Amino acid sequence: MRQDRNRQPVADWCVSPNAMRLNRLVRMSRRDALLGGLGFAVAGGLSGAHAQTVQPNASAGADQSGEVASFMAVSQRLTDRDTLDANIGTALYMGIVHANPDRKDKIQTLRALMDSSKAATAADLAHAAEKADPALKDVIHEILTGWYRGVADNKVVVYRSALMFDITKDAVYPKTYATGGPFYWTTKPPEVERPTGHPALSASPFVIEPT
Amino acid sequence: MSSDQTLSADVVIVGSGVAGSSIANELARAGISVIVLEAGPRVDRQHFVENFRNLENKPSYQGPFPAVPWARHPPNQQTPNEYLHTSGPNAEAYQQVYLRMMGGTTWHWAGCAWRYLPSDFELKTRYGQGRDWALKYEDLEPFYYQAEVMMGVCGPDPAKEDLGSPRKQPYPMDALPISYAAQQFRSLIQEKTPWRVVHEPQARNTRPYDSRPTCEGHNNCMPICPIGAMYNGSYSVYHAEAAGAKFIPNAVVYKIERDSANKRVTAVQYYDPDKNSHRVTGKYFVIAAHCIETAKLLLVSADDKSPNGVANSSGHVGRNMMDHTGVQVTFISGDKALWPGRGPLETNVIDNFRDGDWRSERGAYLVHMVDDNQVDLATQLAISKGYVGRDLEEQIRYLAAHTVRLFSHNEALPDPENRLTLSKTNKDILGIPHPDVYYKLPEYTVKSCEHTRGVFRQLIGLMHGTDEQWTPGYFPQDHPSGSTIMGTDPTDSVVDGFCRTHDHDNLFIASSSVFSTVGTGNITLTVAALALRVADTLKKELIHA
Known about the structure:
The structure holds 2 protein chains of 2 kinds.
Chain A: E1 2-3, H1 17-34, H2 40-45, H3 62-79, H4 86-99, H5 103-116, H6 122-132, H7 136-149, E2 151-152, E3 155-156, H8 163-166
Antiparallel strand pairs in A: 2-3
Chain B: E1 3-14, H1 18-29, E2 34-37, H2 45-53, E3 85-87, H3 123-127, H4 137-151, E4 154-155, E5 173-174, H5 180-192, E6 197-199, H6 233-242, E7 246-248, E8 252-258, E9 265-271, E10 277-287, H7 291-300, E11 328-332, E12 348-350, E13 365-370, H8 375-385, H9 389-402, E14 403-410, E15 419-427, E16 433-438, H10 443-462, E17 466-470, E18 507-509, H11 524-544
Parallel strand pairs in B: 1-2, 1-10, 2-7, 3-16, 4-5, 10-18
Antiparallel strand pairs in B: 6-12, 8-9, 9-10, 11-14, 11-17, 12-13, 13-14, 15-16
């Protein structure tokens, strides 16, 4: 007969899901560090057992700032935005690279493609990237998921500040942050015209995460 | 481990959810001593709100509520599961979730506070299906109202919108004004179909009530209302404690003792998290530990006197498992922007399929148009379609404004073969077996779901919908019921019409586990009404004794 053995500390029920995952991550990263495996950025950024987000500057070494700069440049092009928050960007970058260490090189590839192809828009860059290497589509998805959903490495990096809420703030509030007062919901929200743009990447299966 | 102390009260209650805490409150206010034993910890709202905000998979209603190891609950709705092990042809359809903690599973409910229809209590007599309850709607009506006052239920004026369950008093609060999206849906149904959309009765404040604020529309009733505008069991816990009831958290009851004649319960025993055993004696005992845990406890308590489990001379403990099996579809409306997600989650219902002569052939159901913020889903969908940059942002706005989610509650029937048993292969850290459930959807429910799919396809057509995402198969609505079924015949039921076990004079059960049929409305108000009726019986017997 199998018996549950994982006796977590009593206080664990009250820590956040992110912190619980980070605790496991820290344990894993220590083991991996002993095996000589893990990257400097992630191991350095997760010093606190209850860290809610990765600290952007504490772990950013000199050679990493160039990587983050590339990530920011690629991100601005893929979002068609001139400005993006650098602190959020650093945290997203570290999450993305932690989940898949090869993303470090892939993001550099995207940066080089952006320059060589003279991609002026997100669509230009996405076209060029998928043509050059179909695997870059996944990297672009991760970058867009980071900025628009606020999620990297299956963890929440930002919630309210995710861009998906910035672009819908004239109509809806992020859940738990409504400020319209009782019955605001009875009023007419803005109309939205059918978009005229086209996908820049090939379609991927849409899988709803199981609950 | 041996008992280190003995506690005692007039009434000992196992479980602190809506049922247990509301009974405790009523009894304590009448001067009766009460001890409530809760397997899980004492918890607070703000931790759960923060947990939710940090949760990547926001639709996971269990996500913000991690279990403690001594009182595990299902971590998710996935099969196979780490705690609730389902099997059978429709194992996935019975992958229920619930919470074991102070206040119970209403930490994550949507506040839908339906009364059952009179016909729901007489399914056998009226339609030749399932069973009749051992009580009538009229027996429960005063307790429905008491439950509505306790929770603070808002609902429509019956003169304008009759929901089919006769009322002697109006709802305690006026109906919730529905969102723009729900208004559009309601108009469409009214103009283009023979059906109607009604205001859903909800345990949600449309004015300050019971020292709780008016709903501000955070759109997060599930998994956690951030401000307490929606009732949950914790409020009855607070009221009961203020009235003098004693609540003991982290007290995992594992044994129900009876006298030598096996007619009366004498004590229950519980483990604390370190597996020290404690004994609690009383005059009356109420098991109010949720449908699944209640049946599990009765079975775990088997001994020489009751080899099949306590209160189980009929053999029906753990049988007749029911739920509101659901059909669900999400699609993109081709009409004007709706922007769902402004206001509470569930406010409006198509109620035309709750009752009719066809119930002799197929199960009843109701349809929710879920008013859920769809921005996250829209973002994931737009990225998967291949959009980037400005085009992506336009898509997110369009999809978030036009996504529609429909789901149904389809009626099950009590089938003794659908059965909860104790796991032979999995135990928790205290050595208590996990629950196993075998489930095969009744044909009655399958036919009902087929009918629902037809209605949903019509609605998708009316809204010029595209991008249909049907949730595969059948999914659980987390309304488990039937595991200690009510009836007049002690040979085929566990409790009588007053929720008293046939076998033990002073043992009551307050839970959806006593339901003889499951109707269509969310089960919580009926659970509360039955519990308040148990409290009424106990008060009469204890005060007049």
